Every structure is written in structure tokens, then in C-alpha cells.
């Protein structure tokens, strides 16, 4: 053995190279995909077929209820860019606040349609939008498959892509949702290229960085929520660095840490700049306007009534678990099992596939759900605002099923292969059959745990966007109903989704067919011949009673036997005539008109309500109460019927009964100002003046222009010795016309 020479006295030991912490040797995943070469072409071949199928389905999908705003924004964006920024209508759109959305999808489709000469009045205009929508939906599915392929190989990447394509909710939205699906595509694209970027770090692969910037640009170019990807990059890059270099690497591997930092910042900045190119409002003030949009969407400011677990509630009053229940009820069973199994088997998946892919998939799928819950965001229309999280959930589910298959192979037991395949085939067949039966609107799917469509009917919203209006129009056309009336006058069709109706009727029926908007519960306020009404605005109890659609139905558009949209005939228009006679205060003739309708259609709740109103004005209070109760048997939570019943009881001297009825109306709708007013009137007559004032205050909070409420409150304040405040209220009442 050679002895080390001693260092001579007075001499320093020569300095050697400064030790640098090497990248940690992370054990390779147990599973290293070795597969037959045909899996790669099979993956791409099936992905191409799925694109074709998605485009075909999109071609038969209806316009969604928000397209009125989207189409308008698309046209204004095109005008803005083609005018060199001179036409600034796209910068301020009060209806829908569309300027707060990035314009990537709307500009792309708008320029395409403008180049082809199509306008929103053309059927082809909407076809183009649906084809683009399908393309983006397919791209999101493709990136899910590629993410899993990057870790587990082509075979299991194909399984993941099949998982998301066979999810009817995601597939259905891919046919016609221009907001949430393209955003989910940008999100999935960024997630995939983020994985590739981190996989090869500290080596720089420019293609991955460009892809990452592109995904960020698409997501942020649609919604300010794309900023979430910046946080993801920071989190995942930090974790990847720690896994590779440990905490000591922060000081000993500064160069590598710098590479992580500048590539992440570069991709984020490039993505942000790309988004500004298609978002004029943000372009005007990149930081301030982007943050303004983020703040607005963090609360999804729209407040609408939604049907959830059988109750019609305002969207700002839904319970914290709203999105979780929706996801649980509308996600296919194979995905639910995979998600739950993936969480339970997380340590095993970590060991098998490495930490980063599993963490990224799980976090991208689960974090947004918990963030929405924690931020108390207003949600509506199911969980469509969270569709961007679904790719992550599918990735986690695919990892779980992949793990099961790998363990099955390792067991050496052939029968397990048949068992696992049989289970998956059965689970995947159920949503596939649903889509095959309902190709125009697969987004209304509910899984077997929710009882399918029949279990969800009357408990959850189904076709909340009214896309099945298209199928209703097509069937009317097929049956020869879309034509001018015998006297040559145009046929009038009314709908609560009039924009959808108008665009599906199309220009070819100009002069022959007129479309008009009418609310379902006020459907006889206008004169029409046919009505097309989705169940969206029918209350849950009425749907559960099984009396909708009513007997005026010509036909309905169904999903698995459940009516989504009803086409009604106005018949002899007795109810419309009764409404006009009531406006003229000819209540005797109005009552006769309503009774004619009831003789033919005893399940027409609006005829009973109209009759009750006429009877109240004729001072036939017991009969009016009976008519109102008949209406409530058909539509148990109809506010107009409750109002008539309460008035009839009040005028009959039944104060206790009237009080109960108005309290029930408030339970149904806590913003029903009329019920608060009459409850206060009863309380004032019972000398419960404090309670009366409290209810009048609530009436005025919900309806600040309620003149009678001001006047009654002033009378009570006079009685309680507060004439100054009473005078203020009378002055306010005098200003109301």
C-alpha cells in the first residue's frame, strides 16, 4: 500500500476542487414499460378514430344556453382585430362581462367563420364552433393519454385516453362548451409538457418549454384562472429539485437551481404574453385587468336558481359539498373506483411510477376541488367550472388500473387477466351505451350510483343548457310542423331558450316561423302556437310528481326515458285569452276561458292559477283557494299558486292559514318580497308590529321599489311613535311611479 506523503511544515495543503452535491440517484420506478411495438401505432390510430367520432357527435350537438354571449364576443373580437383596435366594443360588454374572458377560442372560431362568410344567423356558423370545440376536447383527451404514456407506456396511455373519452360529461361538454373545454385543454397540455420538462431537468429541451408556454397561453387566453399553472410550476419544480438534489442542493447546486428558476419564469412569461395577444382587455393593462378578471371569477358572480338534491336553491346558497356530490353522481364508475383506489394506493403508485407523475396527476385533479370549497366560490350548472380538473383525476385513475394490471401480470395467474378485463369492460360499457343512446347530449349523464337519469330526475338539473332544443326543432321539421299557418301568418314558437331556438330554426324559415322568448312559468303572457321548453326552469317537486311534461305535450326529447325538453301546443289558446281578459279586468269572461282550458287539460297549473286569480277578483274566495290548491297539486312549489292561496285565505279571514302559506312561499324563495309584505300585513293586524317591520325590511331589501311596503311600514312607524322615519319612507314611496 502506498503511504501518503506528509505535507512539509509551513506549507498549506493544496486546495482541491470544491465538492458539488451530485443529483441524487433516485431508484428507477419498478415498472419500466416494455411492450410490443404495435401499441404505439394502435394508440395513434385509435386516437384518430376518437377524433372522428367526436367531430361526428359535435355535428349533431345543440347550441348551449351561453352561446348568445359567446357568439357576440366572438364577433366583437374579430371586429377589434380587423379594425386594428379601432372598434373597441370588445373591451366593454356589460351583458356577461365577456371582456374578462380571454379571447383565444372566440377569436379562432370568429376569424374562421368570418373568412367563410358565416354569421351567427347561419347554421354553419355554429357547426364551425362545435367542430373546434370537439378538436379541443379531443386534444385534452390526447394529452391525458400522452401523460400516462410518458410514465407507463403506450398501452396504458391508450387506456387513459379511453377513460376520458368514455366519460359522457367530459365528452358531452367537448361537443359544445367553448369556455370550460378549451380551458381544460390548455391545462392538460401544460401538465403534460410540465412533466416532460421536469423529467429531463436540468437538461433543457426547448420543445417541452415551448409546449408548456403554449399550454399556459391557451389556458390563460381563455380564463384568468390559468394563473393557477404558475403556482403549479413553482410547486412541481421545487419538489422535483428537492427529489433530485435534496435541501443541500439549494446551496451546492446553485447552477441547477438557477436553471429550474429561469426556465420556469421564461415559460410563464411566454405563456402570459401569448395570452395577451388574444385578450384585448388584458392587453390594455396586463396586470391590473388580469387580476380584476381573476377576482371576478373566483366568485363566479352569477347568481341563479339551481336544482340540487331535490331543492331549488340560489347558487350562492349551495352547500360546500355541491361540486363533490355532482362529481360523484356523474363520473363513470371505473373512474370513481380508479380515483379512490389511486388515493388509497398512493404510496405504491409513488414507488411504481416515481413521485412526480403521481403527485402531479393527483394534485392537478384534487387541489382545484378543495380550493373551490375553501374559497366558497359560487358554482352552478353542475361541475362544469371544474372540468379542467378532470384530466388529473383520470390520470390518477389510470395509474391505479395500470398498477392492478401490472400486479396481475406478476401474479402469473391467467384467470386474473380475464377477471380484470371483464370488470373493466362492464364498467366502461355502461357510459358507452349511454352515449350511443343519447349522442346529441351525453353531458346529461348520471351514473348508476345516482340512479341513472331516472334517479336524478327532479333532484338534479339535466339539460341545464337547453342543447336538446335542437332535437326538438329537428323533430318538428321532420313532422312537418315548421310552416306558416293556413291563413298565411307566420307560425310563432316560444321558448325559455329562445337563442338556441332561433339559431336552430335558421334563416330558411324567415317569414314562415317567428321565435320568441317566454318564461315557462309565464308562458301564456305571449301569443304562440308551439312552445319548446327544456326542464331547466321547472321546479324539482313538479318533476318528481311525474306530471311534467303536461298533457299539452306533442312530444318530448328524452334521455334514457327521462324528458329533457317538451314541445307543447297552445291548442285553442284559452289561457292566453284568459290572461288578456284579466288584464282588461273582465274576470267573469277570464274565468270562463280558464275553465275551458281546464276541461281539456286539467294538469295545466297556469290555468288553475289564472282561474284562482279571477275568482279572487270576483270575491269567490273558497273557490279561489280550491283552484290554487289544484295548481299546487300539480306544481307543489309554484310561487304564484302559493300567492293566490294566501290571498284567498287572507280575504276569507283565515289569518293563521294565510300566514302559514306565505311562510311556505318564503321557504321556497327567501327573496319573494310579496310574501314578506303580506306576512307583515297579517302581523300588523295582530299588533305584532316589530315582526311586521322586520318582514317589511326584508321585502324592501329584495325589492327596493315596493311602494306598498314603504307605505305599510310608514303606517306602523306612526303607530310606534316614529313619525320622522315614517315621513322619510313616505317620501321614498312618492318617488316610485
How is this structure best described in words?
The chain has 737 residues and is mainly alpha-helical. It folds into three domains: 39-411, no CATH class; 469-569, no CATH class; 576-734, Serine Threonine Protein Phosphatase 5, Tetratricopeptide repeat (Alpha Horseshoe), CATH 1.25.40. Helices cover 61% and strands 5% of the residues. It has 33 helices and seven strands. The strands form two sheets. A five-stranded mixed sheet has the order 4-3-5-7-6, covered by helices on one side. Strands 1-2 form a two-stranded antiparallel ribbon. Helix 22 (498-505) links the parallel strand 3 and strand 4. Helix 4 crosses helix 18, helix 21 packs across helix 22 (498-505) and helix 29 runs antiparallel to helix 30 (673-685). 47% of the residues are buried.
Distance between the termini: 110 Å
Radius of gyration: 31 Å
Q: What best-fitting shape do the alpha-carbon axes yield?
A: globular
Mean pLDDT: 92
What number of structural domains do the residues give? 3
List the total number of helices: 33
> β content, as a range?
5-15%
Total strand segments: 7
* Model regions low in confidence, pLDDT < 50 over at least 5 residues: 1-5, 10-16, 25-30
Helix content: 55-70%
- Class based on secondary structure composition and strand pairing: mainly alpha
Biggest sheet details: 5 strands, mixed
Task: Give the strand order, joined by hyphens, for the main sheet.
Answer: 4-3-5-7-6
Amino acid at each position: 500500500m502506498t503511504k501518503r506523503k506528509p505535507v512539509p511544515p509551513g506549507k498549506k495543503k493544496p486546495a482541491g476542487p470544491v465538492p458539488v452535491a451530485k443529483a441524487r440517484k433516485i431508484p428507477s420506478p419498478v415498472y419500466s414499460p416494455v411492450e410490443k411495438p404495435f401499441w404505439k401505432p394502435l394508440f395513434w390510430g385509435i386516437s384518430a378514430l376518437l377524433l372522428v367520432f367526436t367531430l361526428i357527435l359535435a355535428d349533431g350537438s345543440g347550441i348551449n344556453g351561453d352561446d348568445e354571449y359567446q357568439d357576440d364576443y366572438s364577433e366583437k373580437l374579430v371586429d377589434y382585430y380587423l379594425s386594428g383596435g379601432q372598434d373597441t366594443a370588445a373591451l366593454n360588454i356589460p351583458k356577461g362581462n365577456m371582456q374578462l374572458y380571454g379571447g383565444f377560442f372566440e377569436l379562432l372560431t370568429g376569424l374562421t367563420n368570418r373568412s367563410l362568410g358565416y354569421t351567427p344567423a347561419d347554421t354553419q356558423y355554429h357547426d364551425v364552433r362545435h367542430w373546434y370545440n370537439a378538436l379541443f376536447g379531443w386534444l385534452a383527451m390526447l394529452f391525458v393519454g400522452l401523460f400516462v404514456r410518458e410514465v407507463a407506456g403506450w398501452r396504458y396511455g391508450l387506456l387513459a385516453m379511453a377513460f376520458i373519452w368514455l366519460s359522457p360529461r367530459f365528452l358531452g361538454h367537448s361537443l359544445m362548451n367553448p369556455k370550460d373545454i378549451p380551458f381544460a385543454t390548455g391545462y392538460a397540455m401544460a401538465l403534460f409538457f410540465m412533466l416532460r420538462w421536469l423529467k429531463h431537468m436540468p437538461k433543457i429541451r426547448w420543445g417541452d418549454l415551448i409546449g408548456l408556454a403554449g399550454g399556459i397561453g391557451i389556458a390563460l387566453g381563455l380564463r384568468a384562472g390559468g394563473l393557477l399553472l404558475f403556482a403549479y410550476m413553482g410547486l412541481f419544480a421545487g419538489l422535483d429539485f428537492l427529489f433530485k438534489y435534496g435541501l443541500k442542493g439549494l446551496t451546492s447546486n446553485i447552477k441547477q437551481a438557477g436553471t429550474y428558476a429561469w426556465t420556469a419564469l421564461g415559460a410563464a412569461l411566454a405563456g402570459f404574453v401569448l395570452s395577451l395577444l388574444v385578450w384585448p382587455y388584458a392587453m390594455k393593462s396586463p396586470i391590473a385587468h388580469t387580476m380584476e378578471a381573476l377576482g371576478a371569477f373566483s366568485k363566479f358572480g352569477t347568481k341563479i336558481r339551481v336544482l340540487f338534491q331535490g331543492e331549488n336553491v340560489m347558487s350562492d346558497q349551495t352547500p360546500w359539498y355541491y361540486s363533490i356530490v355532482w362529481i360523484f353522481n356523474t363520473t363513470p364508475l371505473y373512474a370513481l373506483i380508479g380515483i379512490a383506489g389511486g388515493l388509497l394506493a398512493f404510496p405504491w403508485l409513488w414507488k411504481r411510477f416515481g413521485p412526480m407523475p403521481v403527485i402531479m396527476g393527483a394534485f392537478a385533479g384534487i387541489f382545484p376541488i378543495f380550493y373551490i370549497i375553501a374559497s366558497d366560490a359560487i358554482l352552478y350548472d353542475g361541475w362544469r367550472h371544474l372540468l379542467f380538473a378532470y384530466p388529473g383525476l383520470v390520470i390518477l385513475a389510470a395509474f391505479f388500473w395500470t398498477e392492478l394490471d401490472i400486479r396481475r401480470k406478476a401474479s402469473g395467474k391467467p384467470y386474473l387477466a380475464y377477471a380484470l378485463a371483464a370488470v373493466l369492460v362492464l364498467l366502461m360499457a355502461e357510459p358507452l351505451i349511454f352515449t350511443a343512446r343519447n349522442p346529441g347530449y351525453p353531458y346529461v349523464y348520471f351514473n348508476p350510483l345516482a340512479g341513472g337519469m331516472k334517479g336524478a330526475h327532479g333532484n338534479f338539473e339535466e339539460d341545464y343548457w337547453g342543447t336538446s332544443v335542437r332535437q326538438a326543432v329537428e323533430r318538428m321539421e321532420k313532422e312537418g310542423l315548421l310552416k306558416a299557418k293556413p291563413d298565411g301568418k307566420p307560425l310563432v314558437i316560444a321558448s325559455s331558450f329562445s337563442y338556441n331556438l332561433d339559431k336552430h330554426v335558421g334563416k330558411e324559415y324567415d317569414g314562415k316561423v317567428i321565435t320568441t322568448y317566454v318564461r315557462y312559468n309565464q308562458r301564456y303572457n305571449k301569443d304562440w302556437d308551439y312552445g319548446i321548453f327544456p326542464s331547466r326552469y321547472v321546479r324539482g317537486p313538479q318533476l318528481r310528481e311525474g306530471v311534467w311534461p303536461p298533457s299539452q305535450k306533442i312530444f318530448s326529447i328524452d334521455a334514457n326515458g327521462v324528458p329533457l325538453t317538451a314541445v307543447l301546443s297552445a291548442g285553442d289558446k284559452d289561457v292566453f285569452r284568459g290572461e288578456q281578459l284579466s288584464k282588461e279586468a273582465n274576470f267573469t269572461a277570464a274565468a270562463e276561458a280558464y275553465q275551458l282550458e281546464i276541461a281539456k287539460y286539467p294538469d295545466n297549473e297556469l290555468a288553475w292559477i289564472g282561474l284562482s286569480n279571477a275568482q279572487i277578483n270576483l270575491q269567490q274566495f273558497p273557490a279561489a283557494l280550491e283552484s290554487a290548491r289544484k295548481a299546487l297539486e300539480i306544481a307543489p312549489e309554484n310561487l304564484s299558486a302559493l300567492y293566490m292561496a294566501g290571498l284567498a285565505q287572507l280575504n276569507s279571514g283565515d289569518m293563521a292559514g294565510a300566514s302559514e302559506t306565505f311562510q311556505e312561499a318564503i321557504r321556497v324563495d327567501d327573496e319573494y318580497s310579496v310574501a314578506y309584505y303580506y306576512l307583515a300585513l297579517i302581523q300588523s293586524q295582530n299588533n305584532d308590529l316589530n315582526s311586521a317591520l322586520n318582514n317589511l325590511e326584508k321585502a324592501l331589501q329584495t325589492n327596493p321599489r315596493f311602494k306598498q311596503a314603504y307605505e305599510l311600514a310608514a303606517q306602523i312607524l306612526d303607530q310606534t311613535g316614529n313619525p320622522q322615519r315614517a315621513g322619510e319612507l313616505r317620501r321614498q314611496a312618492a318617488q316610485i311611479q
